[in-house]
Amino acid sequence: MNKPLDARIPAGPIGEKWKKFKADMKLVNPANKRKHTVIVVGSGLAGSSASASLAEQGYQVKNFCISDSPRRAHSIAAQGGINAAKNYMNDGDSIYRLFYDTVKGGDYRSREANVHRLAEVSVDIIDQSVAAGVPFAREYGGELANRSFGGTQVSRTFYARGQTGQQLLIGAYQAMMKQVDDGGVQLHTFRELLDLVIVDGKARGIIVRNLLTGEIERHVADAVILATGGYGRVFFLSTNAYNSNATAIWRAHKRGALFGNPCFTQIHPTCIPQSGENQSKLTLMSESLRNDGRVWVPKKKEDCKKDPREIAEEDRDYYLERRYPAFGNLVPRDVASRAAKQVTDEGRGVGESELAVYLDFRDAIKRVGESTIREKYGNLFDIYREITDENPYEVPMRIYPAVHYTMGGLWVDYHLMSNIPGLFVLGEANFSDHGANRLGASALMQGLADGYFVAPFTVTNYIASTKMDPVKTDAPEFVSAESDTRKRLERIMTLGKKGCETAKNGGASRTVMEIYRELGKIMWEYVGMERTEAGLKTAIGRIQKLRAEFNSGFQLVLPDEGKARTQLLEVALRVEDFIELGELMAIDALERRESCGGHFRVESQDDGEAKRDDVNFAFVSAWEYSGDPSKPILNKEQLVFEHVHPTTRSYK
Amino acid sequence: MSNHAKSTKTSSKNMTVKLKVWRQKDAKTEGKFENYSLDGVSASMSFLEMMDLLNEDLTKKGIAPVEFQSDCREGICGTCSCFINGQAHGPERGAATCQVYMRKFAEGETIVIEPWRAAAFPIIRDLVIDRSPFDRIIAAGGYTGAKTGPHADANSILVPKPDADKAMDAAACIGCGACVAACPNSSASLFTSAKITHLAMLPQGHPLRERRVLRMVEQMDKEGFGHCTNIGECQSACPKEIKIDFIAQMRREYLAAVVNQRPESKSGGSG
Amino acid sequence: MKTNFASSTLGRKFVMAITGLLLVGFLVAHLSGNFLLYQKEGSLFNAYAQKLASFGVLLYAAEVGLVAFFGFHAYNGIRLAFLKQRAKPVKYAVTQSKAGNSKWGLASNNMMVTGSVLLVFIVLHVIHFKYGRGLAEGYAVQVNNEEARDLHRLVVEEFKKPLITVLYTAVMVMLGFHLRHGIWSAFQTLGLTKENNSNKIYFVGGVLGVFLGFGFLTIPLYIYFFV
C-alpha cells in the first residue's frame, strides 16, 4: 500500500471539529434505517453501548459474543473508575485539561482530534450512565462523588465502589437487552469471529463459529463493528480474562485492516505478584490504592527478606516519592511500573520471588483509621488476602507490574473506521486515543464514548454516503471465506491429532497450553517492560521457532471432532493468531527506536526516564499484512500536534 | 469474603487431590461421575488453575478435557460455575469458584465437582450450563429505558447516599446463578430481586417500576425457575453476598404493582 | 399489563403466607383453649367446649373458613411441591449448607414433609375428637345446669393410650418445625421484613413456632403421666 493514510479529521479549530462533523454528516431516513443491518462483534462497553444506540436509532443490529451472556465481557473487571471533565469538584478541570492530560499521558503518540472528542463526550457519558441507573458513589448530599487517579492533578474520576466497569457494563448491557426485547438487537452468544468478509472492497459480513456446536455460520450486514477488546493475553499472564483474545482483529488484519502501534502495551504497576508456574492470570489491585498506599522497597538488599514491619523508617526507600516529588505515588502507570522494575533489577525486590515491591497502608491507617481504609478499599483488601493468605491491614501488600491493556489495535480514522470501508473498530480494539500510555480511568471512558456517542453517528454517515449493492450470504466472497475457515479448522484439528500421535509414540510434542505459556514468557522477557534491539531480535527468532513448532503439531484432544464445546480447540485457534501478532509486536518495537510511554527502549533513555524522538517517530505505525507474518509492511500516519506541544513528559 | 477467620487447611507445597467430576456429553445424554487423581497441586493455586492442570493431565493421557466455564478469574464476570463438595462456588463464602484457592482443601481429599443443577439451566457439556434465562429476565424489564442521547446533567438528579448505597449493594450481582444452584427449588428470586431493587432505589428507575417487576417476575416463572421458600441458602452462596431482604422488597414491589396496575396503551409507552 | 397474580409463584406464595398466618392465629386460640386441660377435673374445658358449641351458625361459619384456609394452604403447598420437583429434577450427589445467614436446616428443608404429616394428622384429629364419642355414647356432663358433651373425658381416655400419646407428641414436634420456618417465611413472603428487622422476625417467628409446637405437645404428656 504505502500511500499516506488519511485520518479524515474535519477541518477547523480543535473544539469545533466534532460539532462540524455532526453538522455535516449524512443522515439515513428513519424509515430506511430498519433496512440496514449492522453487525457488532463484542459485548463489552463499546459493543453493548453501540448495539443499544444503533438499535434505538432503528438499525437491525446483530450482536455477537463469545461468552454465554453479553454481560461477561471483560470490561466488567475494570475496578477504579471513569474520567469525565465535569469539574464537579471545582478544582480547575475542563474539557481542555482532560484533553491535555490524555495527550500528555499518552506521551504524544495519540491523535489530538480523537482525544479532544473523547474529552468532549466524557461529560455526556456520565449523564447517560446516570440516566441508565448506574449506581455511582455519592456524597451525603446526594451528589456524585469523585476521586483522583494517576497522572492527573484534579479529581475527575467517577466510580461505583471497586466495580465501576461492572456497573457501566451492566448499564449498557441492560440498554441492549431492552433492544433485544424490542426486536432491534439479535443476540448471538457463544459465537467467535473467525473471518471478515469483504465484498467490493467493503466489509459486508463475518464468519463465526458456534462454540457449542462447532457450526460455521455466515452473517451479512451493511457495516461491521469490531469491539473485541485488547490483545494483552499474548503475554499469557496478564490481568485480562481467560477468553480475551486477538482473533477478531487479527483476522481483520489478515484481510487487509492495518494494525496500529502493536507494541504499545500498558504494564499496570499494582498487580498481585505471580505465585507459581501454573498461574493462569494476574489480579489487578486498583490504581486507586495509590491514593493512600505508599510504595517502597528496602534501601539495603539484606533487608529484603526481613519482615517489612521491622524495617525502620530510615531504611525504607519510598522511591516514587523520592524521584517524582510532584506526583509521588500517583505518577502514571508506565512510570510507576518501570520504577518498580528498576528497583527489583537492583536486587531490592521483596517476597519469595524477589519480584515485588511493597504498597504500604500503615501511614494511611494511622492517619484516617482502619475503618475508613476498610470502607474505601475493603473489597480490594479482601481479594488480596484471599489470593495471598496475608492480611494487608497488618503487613504491607506486595505488588508487581503486569500486562493490563494494549493501546495498540486496528488503525482507524477519525470516524473510527479502519482502512477497510465499513469496518469500524471501537474501544480497546482500536489504537486511537491513548497513544503510548493510557491514563487510569480512561479505558471505560473511551469504550463508552466510542459506542454511545461516536460510532452511532459515523456509522450512519457511512451508510448514508455509501452506495451498497444487496449482498446475500451465498455470495462467492462468503462461500470462499467460509471454506478458508473450514480449511483452517481442519488444519488445526489435524495438528492436534498429529501432536497426540507423536506423544503416543514417545515423541516430543507439547500441549497447546505449553506452547502458549512459552509465547507468554518470550513476550514478557523481551517485549515487556524493557526492550532492547538484541532482545527483540531474540524474541522474533524464538517466536518464529515457536510458530514452526505449532505448525508441526501439538497435543489437543478432540472428543467430537470439534462439533461440541471444546475449549482447548478455541485456545489453539487463538494461540495461532497470538503467535503471529506477537511477532508483529516485536517487529514494531524493534522499528520504534525511541522510548515513549509504555514502550521503553533501553537504548533511548535519559537517566532512567523515557527519551522520545519526536523528529523521527512522531507517527502511528500502521502495519499491513503481506501474506508472511514475518514481513509486514509499515505505513505511517504522521501525528501533528497543534495544541499540546510535545515536551519531555515530566512528573517530577 | 466474610469468613476469613478460616483456616488454612494445607500449607504443604504440593499435594494430590482426588476428583470426582461430572461428565456429560450434552443435555440429552445422561451424565456420570468420573474419578481422577491429580498430583502436583499447590496450595497457592486457584481452584480453576487446578482444573487447568487436570485438563493438561487429561490431554497428555489422550482423554477429553473437562469442559468448564470461566473468564475473568477474579470474581466479577460471573462465568465460573462449579458446585464443589455440595456447595455453589465451593467452601468460600463471598467468593466465586475462581476465587477459591487450593489451600482450602486437604492433601488426598476427594473433591466432588458438579454443574449447577436446575431445569432452567440445561447442561451443555460437563460443567457448562446455559444461563440465557437470566438474560431474558433482564430483557423483560431490567433497565431504566433511558435511550442514548442528551440527558439532564448527572447532578440534577440527587440520590440520598443510603439509597445509592443500597442500589449498589443490589447491583453488585454478577449473574453467576449460584443462587439458583444453591436453592433447593432452583428459584431465581435473588437474581431477579437484586435487579428490581437496584432500579427501584433510584429515581431513574421509577417510570418503569411497576411494569418492570410484573414483567420480570412473569419471565422468571416462564423460564421454569422454582418458587422461593425463604430458605436463604442463596444469600450464603452468593459471591457478592446479596441479601434476601431484596426478595422481600421484590414482593412489596410486586404487590404494589398488582394493586396499582394500569392498562398499558398499545401505541404508547416505551415498548 | 396483564398479570396472573394467582398463578404466579409470588402469588401462590402470598396465598401460602396469608393462610399460614391465619392458621397460626387459629393455633394460638386452639392452644389457649387446650391449656384448660391442665385443670384435672375438666369442668373448665367442658364449659369452654360448650361455649364454643353454643355459637351455632357462627361456629359453623368459622369452621368452614378454617377448612377453606387450610385447604388453600395445603393445595398451594402441594402445587408448589410439584413445581419444585419440576424446577430441580436432578439432585446433587452432595449438598451442604454454606451456613452464614442461611436458614437452611431441618425445619426449612422439610416443610413439605411436615406439612403432609400435618395434613393427614388434622383430618384424623378432627375425626378423633370433633366427631369422636359424644352424648350418644354416654359422654355427658352437666355444664351450667345443661347437659353437654364430656369432651374432657374423651381426651383423657385417649391420651391414656400410649400409642396415641406418642403419635400426637411426634406430630407436634413436626408442627414445631413447620412453624419454626413457616412463621418467619410468611413475613418474608409478604414483604414485611426489612434489613433492620429481618433477623428479629426470624428469631421471634422461631420462638413462637417452637412455643406453639411445644405447648401442644405438653398436654398429652401431662395427661398421660399426671391425670
Known CATH architecture of the largest domain in chain A? 3-Layer(bba) Sandwich
Structural class of chain A: alpha+beta
Strand segment tally of chain B: 7
Query: What shape does the CA trace of chain A take?
Result: globular
Q: In the residues of chain A, how many domains can be counted? A: 2
**CATH fold-level assignment of the largest domain in chain A:** FAD/NAD(P)-binding domain
CATH architecture of the largest domain in chain B: Orthogonal Bundle
Q: For this structure, what is the CATH homologous superfamily of the largest domain in chain B?
A: Alpha-helical ferredoxin
The oligomeric state of the chains shown is heterotrimer
Mean pLDDT of chain A, as a whole number? 95
Helix content of chain B: 25-40%
Number of helical regions of chain B: 8
Q: Major sheet of chain B: size, sense and barrel closure?
A: 5 strands, mixed
- Helix/strand order of chain B, N-terminal first: EEHEEEEEHHHHHHH
Describe the structure.
The complex is a heterotrimer of chains A (652), B (271) and C (227). Chain A is of the alpha+beta class and 652 residues long. Chain A has two domains: 30-264 and 407-630, FAD/NAD(P)-binding domain, CATH 3.50.50; 268-403, Flavocytochrome C3, Chain A, domain 1. Chain A is built from 17 helices and 21 strands. In chain A, the strands form six sheets. A five-stranded parallel β-sheet of chain A has the order 5-2-1-9-17. Chain A is globular, with a radius of gyration of 24 Å. Chain B has two domains: 14-125, Roll (Ubiquitin-like (UB roll)); 132-145 and 157-260, Alpha-helical ferredoxin (Fumarate Reductase Iron-sulfur Protein, Chain B, domain 2). In chain B, the strands form two sheets. In chain B, strands 2-1-5-3-4 form a five-stranded mixed β-sheet. A two-stranded antiparallel sheet of chain B has the order 6-7. In chain B, a hairpin with a 2-residue loop joins strand 6 (123-125) and strand 7 (128-129). Chain C is mainly alpha-helical. Chain C has helices at 9-34, 43-54, 57-87, 106-109, 111-130, 151-159, 162-189, 198-226; strands at residues 140-143, 146-149. In chain C, strand 1 and strand 2 (146-149) form a beta hairpin. In chain C, helix 5 (111-130) packs across helix 7 and helix 7 (162-189) packs antiparallel against helix 8 (198-226). Chain C is elongated, with a radius of gyration of 20 Å. Chains in contact: A-B, B-C. Chains A and B meet through helix 3, helix 5, helix 6, helix 11 and helix 12 of A and helix 1, helix 2 and helix 3 of B.
